[in-house]
Design goal:
The structure holds two protein chains of two kinds. Chain A contains seven helices and two strands. By secondary structure, chain A is mainly α. A two-stranded antiparallel ribbon of chain A has the order 1-2. Classes of the chains: A mainly alpha, B alpha+beta. Chains A and B meet through helix 3, helix 4, helix 5 and helix 6 of A and helix 2 and strand 3 of B.
Amino acid sequence: MATLESKLIKEDVATLREAYQLRKREYDALHSAGEWMGAAMHAGMLLELALKIAICKNMDAMRLPKAFQVHELEFLLYCSGLEKAFKSNASLYNNFNRIADKWSMDLRYQGATITKQDSDDFHQALFDTTNGVLTFLTSVL
Amino acid sequence: MRKLFIEKIKKVVHDWAAQYPQVELYLIDVYPSGIGENLHLIVVAAKGFENWRQLAIREDLFTFLRKQLGDADVVRISKILPLTEEKYEQYELTRHETPVY
């Protein structure tokens, strides 16, 4: 029978937070360098990590269950306990969906399908001072 | 109730497209996402999307839907995906695949 240990990822939530900070620095570097595809990949990864931290917080758990080791942002938001908060602000929820509709891990297999404008749209959706998705998430995590 | 709402969404998308003479709609698909009460909306154009950035179409359509449906209803749509016919064919081929991690 599988142990509980085997059903959890090995990194704890503090490590996920460190990983978030590292991915954020990588994101900033890629965006500043005009690497739009890489910046877009990292934008989605940042959001994914933030939602996984939110799930840990929602469950009051130190380690993320492997069942949440997926990349579907809509599913992760649903499990984070924050969907209602997002849906109470249509602009914030739209910013979330701007990323979720366009981003997937399949982007890693693609060439330059993300333009500067797409990358700028992602950036605004994440970091807008009023309704940015990560602006909101980092304020509650 | 959901059926009526889906029909309402389709009507609003038709009204949105009518503003753009260059856009010829091919298909409007609205279906439950399987997560909560969320719905996904796919809008396929036979013409008119080729030279319009996908995220820009999406934003324009969202703004129109929000105006027509109101905030409480527009948040029931968790995906808005505008596609050309060609992109739709590719999308259809892969949409039911299990994601590779």
